[in-house]
């Protein structure tokens, strides 16, 4: 697999494994509408297609709409109302009740509205709503004559107020987070507005309570106040998930089923913990669930409850990621992805678990030679279950020791590029590297009773105990990889994104295993990191025990600070930063550059924490391969446009001799 193929992979919904897929099943349970998105690095855009395909898997998909701008998701962050994400907004197509139309969100000219498409592809798609605000979510009215839509007018109201404040200068206060914005960010909850839009008569009005409940169902009265997920079945049956210890944020969960006769059945045994999706079969007789289970919750199980069973039947269990399941007769239609299988739509028989492929959006990979994947399972020095995947090149010969790159900090589903999709795992393997796809271990036992995120740190006896636990797991995974005979322990590189960046930073300081490093999020320290995060975040971190700009800071930050350990670190460092985050690395970059260390930083414009632009993703893949190839394998991309970078790198201390470098791919010897 090449980096171009990886950057152009087709996604169903979000590229984040396990996210809710963008698919909808027709009322007659015979067809699926699915949004497929493919990155186009050359144009730095996405090709987005709305397809209709038969659930039977027989016949070709019909394209019923194409185009529209990328719709980025957003989320609330602590008290900030609105922070833009890099992943796409959930956008499942929704069939009209009579099955004659498919509705979906589409963004044109800076506005997100509902559009309608003909499921047979005979008519061009048309815009159905024309509201002043972007539409976040929608649903069909019960009679199919209109739509219920949700918007947030408060976002624009707050933005206008902030713009007016700017005329007299912004007060720098807790509304600021410089790495997110150069002006105050709206705070507090933004209330959703629910509107009914008539399709036949073209008017809009405030949605009634009944209409609003279609889009935002009220919590059923039978459930507990702490229920986090509930599903209604036939004959007024109800099932929900609730925490066993509601005050604990890490509480295990249990399942509750309420029968029509008023009886409640509570399933508290460990075999029922870890459920993350719940639905009823089409006939309402069976309750189905997806569960994270097995070693370090690394596996997915499909469970089924029939009638009065005390425990569910485990239909099947797999290392793959299953998500978005919906009932269709005796089958569940889901997405599935494995370590060497990109996302596909599959149908599972609810009785036997037998699988059939409904749709593969990436048939071009049918003959791809994948790197071999070996799952490593172990307990770290703190007794915490851990796992990692060791990926070896296709055709790797036993006994051949390879340079290795560590990617993190999750390792579920298709091994694409780590949590931030910034480390090209399979292309690195194809280039002759081993890759350790490392999964961050869970929390230490000491924090199991934490009642807040702050307590997940303050309950620890030692400030950096969690980082030491992560490092312990990482070192043990590397030891197992080296012990396999496939890895050269003198040539190991490490990468870091988000929390994984902090873990990589800690590893560089507290371990001597790594000969090269790259960060797409850097750097967590007592200076720039605190400043660019803004007052709200630094106050939050102070509550967790992090000191900033006072006498206790030096000793506290010594195990974590790249600045305070500059004399001890000679590892070459590459920083590939979003323009919204690079300021956090400026003190490290300047200090290391001033001390003559090997460090380089590139800044990508218009990016969020999770980078979303296809051109930047492809470039990030390329820089990762070039950097680690140079330092760990002494390889060069000898094409003329790449030579200036090697001139810079050869001038770094510790760089290989020019005579030790060779081109990749090797020059052809053919006549």
UniProtKB/TrEMBL annotation:
The keyword Calcium does not apply. The lineage of its organism: Bacteria, Pseudomonadati, Pseudomonadota, Alphaproteobacteria, Sphingomonadales. Keywords: Aminopeptidase, Hydrolase, Protease. One of its GO terms (molecular function) is serine-type peptidase activity. This is Dipeptidyl aminopeptidase/acylaminoacyl peptidase. GO terms for biological process: proteolysis. Residues 478-633 form the Peptidase S9 prolyl oligopeptidase catalytic domain. InterPro entries: 6-blade_b-propeller_TolB-like, AB_hydrolase_fold, Lasso_peptide_isopeptidase, Peptidase_S9_cat, WD40.
């Amino acid at each position: 697999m090449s980096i171009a193929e990886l950057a152009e992979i087709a996604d169903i919904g979000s590229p984040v494994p396990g996210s809710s897929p963008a698919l909808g099943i027709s009322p007659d349970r015979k067809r699926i509408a699915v949004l497929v998105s493919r990155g186009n690095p050359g144009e730095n855009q996405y090709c987005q297609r709305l397809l209709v395909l038969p659930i039977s898997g027989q016949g070709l998909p019909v394209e019923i709409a194409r185009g529209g701008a990328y719709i980025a998701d957003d989320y609330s962050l602590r008290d900030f109302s609105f922070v833009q994400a890099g992943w796409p907004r959930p956008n499942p197509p929704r069939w009209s009740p009579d099955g004659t139309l498919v509705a979906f969100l589409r963004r044109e000219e800076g506005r997100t509205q509902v559009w309608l498409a003909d499921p047979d592809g005979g008519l061009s798609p048309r815009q159905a709503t024309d509201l002043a605000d972007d539409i976040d979510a929608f649903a069909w009215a019960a009679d199919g004559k209109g739509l219920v839509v949700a918007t947030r007018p408060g976002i624009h109201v707050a933005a206008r107020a902030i713009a007016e404040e700017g005329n007299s200068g912004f007060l720098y206060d807790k509304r600021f987070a410089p790495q997110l914005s150069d002006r105050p960010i709206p705070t507090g909850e933004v209330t959703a507005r629910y509107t009914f839009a008539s399709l036949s008569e073209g008017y809009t009005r405030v949605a009634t309570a009944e209409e609003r409940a279609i889009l935002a169902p009220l919590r059923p009265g039978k459930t507990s106040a702490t229920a986090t997920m509930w599903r209604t079945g036939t004959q007024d049956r109800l099932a929900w998930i609730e925490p066993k210890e509601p005050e604990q944020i890490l509480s295990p969960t249990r399942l509750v089923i309420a029968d029509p006769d008023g009886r409640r059945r509570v399933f508290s045994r460990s075999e029922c913990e870890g459920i993350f999706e719940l639905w009823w079969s089409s006939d309402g007789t069976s309750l189905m669930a997806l569960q994270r289970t097995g070693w370090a919750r690394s596996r997915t199980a499909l469970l089924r409850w029939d009638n009065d069973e005390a425990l569910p039947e485990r239909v099947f269990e797999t290392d793959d990621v299953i998500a978005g399941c919906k009932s269709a007769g005796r089958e569940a239609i889901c997405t599935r992805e494995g370590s060497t299988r990109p996302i596909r739509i599959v149908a599972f028989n609810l009785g036997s678990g037998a699988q059939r492929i409904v749709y593969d959006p990436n048939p071009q990979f049918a003959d791809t030679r994948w790197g071999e994947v070996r799952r490593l399972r172990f307990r770290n020095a703190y007794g915490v279950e851990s796992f990692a995947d060791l990926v070896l090149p296709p055709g790797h010969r036993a006994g051949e020791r390879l340079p290795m790159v560590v990617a993190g900090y999750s390792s579920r589903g298709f091994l694409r590029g780590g949590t931030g999709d910034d480390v090209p795992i399979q292309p690195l393997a194809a280039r002759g590297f081993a890759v350790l796809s490392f999964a961050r271990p869970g929390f230490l036992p000491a924090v199991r009773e934490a009642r807040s995120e702050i307590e997940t740190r303050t309950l620890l006896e030692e400030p950096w105990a969690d980082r030491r636990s992560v490092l312990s797991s990482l070192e043990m995974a590397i030891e197992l990889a080296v012990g396999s005979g496939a890895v050269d322990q003198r040539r190991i590189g490490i990468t870091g994104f988000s929390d994984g960046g902090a873990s990589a930073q800690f590893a560089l300081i507290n371990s001597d295993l790594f000969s090269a490093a790259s960060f797409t999020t850097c750097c967590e320290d007592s200076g720039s990191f605190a400043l660019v995060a803004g007052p709200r975040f630094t106050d939050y971190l102070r509550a967790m025990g992090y000191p900033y700009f006072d006498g206790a800071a030096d000793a506290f930050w010594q195990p974590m600070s790249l600045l305070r350990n500059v004399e001890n670190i000679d590892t070459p460092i590459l920083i590939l930063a979003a323009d919204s985050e690079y300021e956090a690395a400026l003190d490290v970059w300047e200090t290391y550059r001033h001390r003559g260390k090997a460090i380089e930083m590139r800044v990508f414009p218009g990016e969020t924490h999770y980078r979303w632009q296809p051109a930047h993703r492809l470039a990030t893949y390329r820089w990762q391969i070039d950097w680690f190839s140079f330092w760990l394998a002494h390889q060069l991309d000898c094409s003329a446009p790449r030579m200036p970078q090697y001139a810079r790198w050869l001038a770094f201390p510790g760089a290989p001799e020019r005579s030790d470098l060779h081109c990749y791919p090797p020059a052809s010897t053919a006549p």
